[in-house]
Design a protein that fits this description.
Strand order of the largest sheet: 2-1-3
Distance between the termini: 15 Å
Largest sheet: 3 strands, mixed
Number of helices: 2
Radius of gyration: 14 Å
Shape: globular
Strand content: 15-25%
Structural class: alpha+beta
Amino acid sequence: MVSKLYVSDGSIGFANGRHRTKWQIRSGYASILVSIQDTDVAYAKKIGLVIREVSESDFLVVKLAPLTMRGDERW
């Protein structure tokens, strides 16, 4: 599942996926696949959040890291 990201007035929010995205950031992912509303894309590009745009028909290669949990870390 892809996290839904919202960008507005310098803030970033999630409709879902905030725990998954937090885990990906903490795990050292260089980039994270998210869904951004059409109305937010221009601003997300302006502040450097967009690496590249994809459409529903694009083929994406996703490399998954092994799932590990350290201590009592919660996602």
